[in-house]
Design goal:
This protein has 16 helices and three strands. The protein is mainly alpha-helical. 51% of the residues lie in helices and 4% in strands. Among the domains are: 65 residues, 434 Repressor (Amino-terminal Domain); 161 residues, Arc Repressor Mutant, subunit A, CATH 1.10.10. It has a three-stranded mixed beta sheet, sandwiched between helices. The structure holds zinc ion (ZN).
């Protein structure tokens, strides 16, 4: 049985408008609208055409419905029309990635979520409480992805082709999901992961209205900064009026970008405005605004590696693709850079 919602999902995931799909498939936009609204089903010939145009097997368009991830479920900045279409493409992929995690959970027991909701607290207080609850003390977080996975967060990779759509997170049936842009430097991915954790802790109860995204983004950044570089520990490291070299040593210790480290020192009044600006200029001259010279290797997933490469039970990308009616290449996108290139 043809499923209208599957047609829409398959189209959105490619970032196609109805007009674009009409061009590619040779089916008129009006007819496509009829199909997507469930007014009538396509003939079997047309169904084959649509499946081809969307690079899915016919069986994909006949699967049961899944509840799409709504734009309001995640915190996004206000976006232009073109960016909004890319956001919708990423959200459609996220919906499919949820199905991927469902197939995993049919066979594996994944950690139970343990993310506190602290929406009444200031970001720095919330981050200290989370550190306390998770027994992290004042130490650097050795691996953000492993930590999140151990606390029940499902971490996946988002479509790397869209660099104007950033990392995002949402809850589905009580389970938190974080999608990371795995094309960034290791330091920036860690900061994104901590930023998304901030949203989960501070904003899970909120309606994610784009018009209030500025405050939410600032709060999530403050949470991330404080979570990765806790106040008391940084203050005990003799960082007052730190030189660029000293900043670079500290960023390696905390595994954050040199810019994030500098920003934190300024925030904690360990650098004056003048010192802050001067360190930023030197770092920028040395290429630290766009990249992270001498930086860390990006983090990878422990959970997905076990699930997809385990010695005994495992689900390969090819197997998962088979049960989702997708191509293995498409499934590999959900875990891109988080696991080794897989069979
Ligand atoms: Zn955010």
């Amino acid at each position: 049985m043809f499923n209208p919602s599957r047609l829409r999902l398959a189209r959105l995931r490619l970032g196609y408008t109805l007009t674009k799909l009409a061009e590619v498939s040779g089916v008129s936009p009006r007819t496509l609208t009829d199909y997507e609204n469930g007014h009538r089903p396509p003939t079997s010939d047309t169904l084959v055409k649509l499946a081809d145009a969307l690079s899915v097997p016919v069986a994909f368009l006949e699967r049961e419905s899944i509840e799409p991830v709504a734009a309001g479920a995640a915190s996004f900045r206000k976006l232009s029309k073109a960016s909004a279409r890319r956001r919708d493409a990423v959200l459609a992929k996220a919906s499919l990635a949820l199905e991927f995690f469902e197939t995993i959970e049919d066979r594996f027991r994944l950690p139970t979520p343990d993310i506190p909701t602290l929406d009444k607290l200031a970001p720095d207080q919330a981050s200290e409480l989370v550190r306390h609850r998770w027994n992290l003390g004042d130490r650097p977080i050795s691996n953000m992805v492993h930590l999140l996975e151990a606390k029940g967060v499902r971490v996946a990779s988002l479509n790397h082709a869209y660099d104007d759509v950033d990392a995002f997170c949402f809850y589905r049936d009580g389970v938190p999901y974080i999608f990371l842009n795995t094309d960034k430097t290791g330091e920036r991915q860690r900061f994104d992961a901590a930023h998304e954790l901030g949203h989960l802790v501070l904003h899970s109860e909120l309606e994610m209205d784009p018009s209030t995204s500025k405050e939410r983004e600032a709060e999530a950044n403050a949470f991330a900064s404080s979570f990765l570089m806790p106040k008391t520990a940084v203050e005990s490291q003799q960082m007052r009026a730190a030189s660029v070299e000293r900043v670079l040593v500290a960023r390696s210790y905390w595994k954050v970008s040199a810019m994030a480290m500098t920003h934190r020192l300024h925030e904690l009044d360990l650098l004056t405005d003048w010192q802050y600006r001067s360190v930023c200029i030197t770092l920028s001259d040395r290429g630290f605004r766009r990249a992270e010279p001498g930086g860390i290797v990006p983090e990878t997933s422990q959970l997905l590696r076990k699930v997809m490469f385990g010695a005994r039970a495992r689900i390969t990308a090819t197997e998962a693709a088979g049960s989702l009616n997708l191509s293995p290449a498409e499934v590999r996108e959900y875990v891109r850079h988080l696991v080794p290139v897989s069979a």
